[in-house]
């Protein structure tokens, strides 16, 4: 049970109107909202909060006629359409509700049980009430590099009239990071692919460091080299750093970023959460970043949110932080949605806004709904 003054679900699958979905009318099969979650967040020029919600739209009955089906975007004469693909059931492992693995390829190949698109939802300045849902400004696939969808937006407000948004674009071609820009936080222009295959959770710092753009990245792989015996670090996915002169062309930074500690299994795997913001914690100025640590358990693991304060001039240096989770999954929040749950033990934090004596923090809860938490700054000082 949360102890924060405001900590609730603010947008759920029931609040998505599928009649206005970009997939509507493209194929003869019923869909439903598997999840409306992992929202990128920023403050709009009018003071309202924007949640860029990931809508994972799935087939109601993916298995039929001896095949398991997935949704795919395909180029067409009028720009694009959505089609269904089917694979023989004997080739598919469907143990994970989010995806299925295909056997016989010689390496790991998977397909998704849903296709994700991004829905801008305008909230009140405290992030707790829906003001408008902007279906006409939805972010949808526009090329074969996004044919399986667009996921997990992160938005960085770079100053007046300048917003940058990173997303994960999914396809058989590559699992890439794509960039969008906006001058108002609502109308977005596609800028291209900025990171290539399986480099997820790219978070652009909300400000320049010595005239350069900085970002956190998280490359994935199936092989990691061991740290020496007795090291304070654990081998595995970690949060790396990159720099750019223009936010389009990125160079990995030579210094390691935030790494898993050997002393705790709760952060055995980690990835970025919120774009780092420049603030002050307990008299120390630095880049505050919230990130997720994953404790191994069953198929998905337990996701919790942690925080670190990075040096303002040398962002690879952690100057403050805590091994105690800032946010944990809260089953009380999803209890009214029990019939929709397909995962548990997951809070995936994706946005932060500084509003004086507290931060507004946006997360995805259980890969199902959007959670807003008001976190007093005293929490960080006491940690």
Question: How do the strands and helices of this protein lay out in sequence?
Answer:
Blueprint: E1 6-11, E2 31-43, E3 49-59, E4 63-64, E5 67-74, E6 81-88, E7 92-93, E8 99-102, E9 109-112, E10 114-123, E11 130-133, E12 150-159, E13 162-170, E14 175-182, E15 189-195, E16 199-204, E17 213-219, E18 240-244, E19 251-252, E20 269-272, E21 277-281, E22 284-295, E23 302-310, E24 318-321, H1 331-334, E25 347-354, E26 358-365, E27 369-376, H2 378-382
Antiparallel strand pairs: 1-27, 2-3, 3-10, 4-5, 5-6, 7-8, 8-9, 10-11, 12-13, 13-14, 14-15, 16-17, 17-18, 18-19, 20-22, 21-22, 22-23, 23-24, 25-26, 26-27
Can you summarize this structure?
With 383 residues, this protein is mainly beta. The protein is built from two helices and 27 strands.
Number of helices: 2
Helix content: under 10%
Sheet-strand content, in percent, reads over 45%
What spatial form do the alpha-carbon principal axes imply?
globular
Number of domains: 1
Which stretches are poorly predicted, pLDDT < 50 over at least 5 residues? none
- What is the CA-CA span between the terminal residues? 19 Å
Instruction: Please report the total strand number as a whole number.
Output: 27
Gyration radius over CA: 20 Å
Query: Class, according to the CATH hierarchy?
Result: Mainly Beta
């Amino acid at each position: 049970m949360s102890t924060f003054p405001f900590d609730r679900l603010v947008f759920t699958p029931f609040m998505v109107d599928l009649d206005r979905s970009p997939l509507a009318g493209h194929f003869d099969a019923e869909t439903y909202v598997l999840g409306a979650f992992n929202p990128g967040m920023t403050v709009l020029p009018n003071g309202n909060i924007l949640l860029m919600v990931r809508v994972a739209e799935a087939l109601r009955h993916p298995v039929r006629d001896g095949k398991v089906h997935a949704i795919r975007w395909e180029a067409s004469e009028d720009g694009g359409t959505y089609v269904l693909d089917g694979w023989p059931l004997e080739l598919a492992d469907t143990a994970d509700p989010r995806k299925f693995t295909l056997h016989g390829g010689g390496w790991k190949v998977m397909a998704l049980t849903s296709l994700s698109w991004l829905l801008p939802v305008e909230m009140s300045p405290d992030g707790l009430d829906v003001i408008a849902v902007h279906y006409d400004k939805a972010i949808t696939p526009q090329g074969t590099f996004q044919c399986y969808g667009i996921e997990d937006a992160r938005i960085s407000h770079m100053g007046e009239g300048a917003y940058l948004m990173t997303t994960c674009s999914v396809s058989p071609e590559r699992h890439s990071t794509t960039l969008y820009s906006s001058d108002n936080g609502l109308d977005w222009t596609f800028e291209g692919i900025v990171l290539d295959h399986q480099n997820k959770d790219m978070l652009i710092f909300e400000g320049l460091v010595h005239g350069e753009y900085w970002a956190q990245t998280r490359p994935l792989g199936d092989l990691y080299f061991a740290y020496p015996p007795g090291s304070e670090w654990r081998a595995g996915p970690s949060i790396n750093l990159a720099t750019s002169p223009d936010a389009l062309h990125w160079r990995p930074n030579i210094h390691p970023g935030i790494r898993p500690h050997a002393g705790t299994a709760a952060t055995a795997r980690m990835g970025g959460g919120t774009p780092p913001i420049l603030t002050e914690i307990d008299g120390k100025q630095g880049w505050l970043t919230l990130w997720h640590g994953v404790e191994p358990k069953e198929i998905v693991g337990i996701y919790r949110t942690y925080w670190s304060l990075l040096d303002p001039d040398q962002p690879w240096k952690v100057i403050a932080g805590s091994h105690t989770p800032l946010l944990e999954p809260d089953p009380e929040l999803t209890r009214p949605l029990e019939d929709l749950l397909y995962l548990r033990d997951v809070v995936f934090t994706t946005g932060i806004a500084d509003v004086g004596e507290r931060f507004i923090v946006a997360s995805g809860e259980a890969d199902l709904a959007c959670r807003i938490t008001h976190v007093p700054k005293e929490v960080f000082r006491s940690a």
